[in-house]
């Protein structure tokens, strides 16, 4: 059984102009992956470039963080004790306690969220009628304390009536011309699950496929955005991965963005959906399109086997930090498999503790060491994992910034991130964007887009 309405008879048609000509792999532009060198942005990679943390507990002031609005109130990760307030664990390094930036140089320049959801939000919703006849076996989600700190800009609409919304959409597309604002009012204010119900109600009421009708009435970026909003979230990730590897060339940054940031449950559902909807094995496609250490990293990510235990083992963090140092900075050459093993298996809170321990051992931040030891796509993949461990919303804020920076816009990246994070952590992404770049996400979107496309994006993002 396939997703309702996916793919339509004859297969799902590709988005027009996807990916944009000349933008298959331009995000971010070459040489611009390091964090922007602007006040409040990330410091550039390199030895000792991160500002030293202050000697006392607490977050650095204006030297390392943007001044406007100040730094979000400390509080560390949900469920963790306040800085300095936790008795040491056996084997834990001596210091002021969990949540206090290490005293050594090299750590502290990466913005820390007021509350981090390591798992990137709650467990993914499985659409009714999941391919293969049944939904994947339910998996336990992360503890409630770990997900309460993030929220999307789109919530399920109260008093929802799928039939009424289907009628509104039919009226907006009937006759001469299209009432785009009516369509925007519906799709921007309904959850993904509600949109699937609208799609099913439309076919029941009118005997027509809503997606085909929308495609016949819309065009360009607004068409791509609306069709993405109507795809079940798992299908949209699988579709994005398929198109990143389809045809000549590979959009490696799309593979990294999805496979290195999703939860175990989300990864497993994506892998199953990829197989059922496209009749292909994602591992085989990855092996055919990538190679070397980057290929191995992506294959590791596809397993969806990262430890998701939220308890931090400080002794293991110290041992992993030492292991990573000996595999990179501490030897001639690099043991890439050691980095792959640690970064692909450890939980995100465990990796954060490892980053802190590494800065004490190496007198350098782990992100900077990866800059020095690796290059190309495997470097980007490893850094993405660490950035998600330190501050997932900041990673997506940076991706959005570079999708609109300079001449032209990487619309597919902009659409993908806005759609996929709209019900998970887009509120926190907006906050980090303002902190990092001293302007709101809505302001940048408004100056970089136009027409109905702009109106729909702003309706999703909010002010």
Please provide a written account of the structure.
The chain has 463 residues and is an all-alpha fold. It is 50% helix and 0% strand. The protein is built from 20 helices and no strands. It has helices at 144-147, 162-173, 180-187, 192-206, 210-217, 220-230, 233-245, 252-259, 264-278, 282-289, 292-302, 314-327, 336-345, 348-362, 366-373, 376-404, 411-421, 426-437, 441-448, 451-461.
A few lines on this structure:
This protein is an all-alpha fold. The chain has helices at residues 144-147, 162-173, 180-187, 192-206, 210-217, 220-230, 233-245, 252-259, 264-278, 282-289, 292-302, 314-327, 336-345, 348-362, 366-373, 376-404, 411-421, 426-437, 441-448, 451-461.
List keywords for this structure.
about 475 residues, about 50% helix
Largest sheet: none
Shape call = elongated
Helix content range:
40-55%
Count of DSSP E strands? 0
Structural class: mainly alpha
> What's the quaternary structure here?
single chain
Question: How is the secondary structure organized here?
Answer:
Layout: H1 144-147, H2 162-173, H3 180-187, H4 192-206, H5 210-217, H6 220-230, H7 233-245, H8 252-259, H9 264-278, H10 282-289, H11 292-302, H12 314-327, H13 336-345, H14 348-362, H15 366-373, H16 376-404, H17 411-421, H18 426-437, H19 441-448, H20 451-461
């Amino acid at each position: 059984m396939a997703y309702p309405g996916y793919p339509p008879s004859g297969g799902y048609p590709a988005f027009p102009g996807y990916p944009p000509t000349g933008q298959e792999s331009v995000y971010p532009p070459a040489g611009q992956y390091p964090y922007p060198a602007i006040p409040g942005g990330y410091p550039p990679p390199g030895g000792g470039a991160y500002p030293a943390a202050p000697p006392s507990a607490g977050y650095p002031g204006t030297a390392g963080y943007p001044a406007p609005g100040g730094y979000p109130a400390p509080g560390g990760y949900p469920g963790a004790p306040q800085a300095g307030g936790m008795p040491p664990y056996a084997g834990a390094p001596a210091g002021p306690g969990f949540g206090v930036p290490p005293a050594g140089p090299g750590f502290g320049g990466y913005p820390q969220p007021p509350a981090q959801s390591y798992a990137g939000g709650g467990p993914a919703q499985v659409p009714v009628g999941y391919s293969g006849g049944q939904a994947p076996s339910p998996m336990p989600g992360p503890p409630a304390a770990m997900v309460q700190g993030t929220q999307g800009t789109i919530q399920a609409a109260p008093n929802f009536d799928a039939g009424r919304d289907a009628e509104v959409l039919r009226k907006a597309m009937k006759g001469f011309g299209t009432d785009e604002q009516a369509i925007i009012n519906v799709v921007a204010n309904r959850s993904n699950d509600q949109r699937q119900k609208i799609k099913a109600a439309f076919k029941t009421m009118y005997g027509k496929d809503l997606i085909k009708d929308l495609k016949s009435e819309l065009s360009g970026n607004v068409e791509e955005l609306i069709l993405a909003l109507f795809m079940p979230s798992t299908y949209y990730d699988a579709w994005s991965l398929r198109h990143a590897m389809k045809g000549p060339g590979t959009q490696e940054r799309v593979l990294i963005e999805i496979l290195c940031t999703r939860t175990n449950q989300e990864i497993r559902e994506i892998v199953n959906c990829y197989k059922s909807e496209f009749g292909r094995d994602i591992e085989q496609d990855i092996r055919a399109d990538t190679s070397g250490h980057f290929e191995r990293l992506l294959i590791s990510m596809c397993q969806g086997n990262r430890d998701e235990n939220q308890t931090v083992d400080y002794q293991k963090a110290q041992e992993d930090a030492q292991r990573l140092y000996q595999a990179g900075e501490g030897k001639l050459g690099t043991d890439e498999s050691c980095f792959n093993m640690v970064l692909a298996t450890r939980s995100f809170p465990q990796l954060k503790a490892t980053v802190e321990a590494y800065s004490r051992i190496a007198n350098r931040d782990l992100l900077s060491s990866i800059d020095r030891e690796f290059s190309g796509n495997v470097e980007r993949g490893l850094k993405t994992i660490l950035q998600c461990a330190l501050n997932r919303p900041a990673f997506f804020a940076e991706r959005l910034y570079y999708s609109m920076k300079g001449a032209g816009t990487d619309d597919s990246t902009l659409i993908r991130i806005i759609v996929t994070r709209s019900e998970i952590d887009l509120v926190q992404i907006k906050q980090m964007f303002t902190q990092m770049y001293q302007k709101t996400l809505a302001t940048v979107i408004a100056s970089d887009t136009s027409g109905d496309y702009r109106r729909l994006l702003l309706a999703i993002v909010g002010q």
